[in-house]
Amino acid sequence: MEKNEIKINLVTILLIVAIIAIGVMGYFMYQTSVKKAEIEERATGLQNEKMILEEENADLEDQKEKMQDTINELENTIKKANIIDDTTYTDASSDNDNTSF
Question: What does the pLDDT read at residue 101?
Fold first, then answer.
């Protein structure tokens, strides 16, 4: 009868160890699931921030192009009107070196 008692006790101990192992694995799976959800939420936030920055960058590039077009138009207008001749242009402050106040 002692052998049967030993077998029952051994099976009971193994069952308890198995239940504890299942519980520990379940806990780690839960923790992994929570961390995964946090990472996905953070990734979504970063993706949204990236899209916003890309849109702002595109807007700034458009503004830069518009400003450059305006500058080019002004340069062409000035050259066509011969307001400034590139070969004879001198700085106005260098002409008036002897002026007194």
Answer: 46
Rounded Cα distance between 1 and 26, Å, is 37
CA 77 – CA 97 distance, rounded (Å) = 31
pLDDT at 3: 64
The C-alpha atoms of residue 15 and residue 9 are separated, in whole angstroms, by: 10
Q: Which tokens belong to 26?
A: 């379940």
In order of 59, 83, 88, 97, the CA distances from 93 in angstroms are 39, 18, 15, 7
- Average pLDDT per consecutive 10 residues, the chain (101 residues; last block may be shorter): 67 93 97 97 96 96 95 88 59 53 46
Report d(CA 61, CA 4) in Å as an integer: 84
Six token digits for residue 78: 């000035």
The pLDDT value recorded for residue 6 is: 61
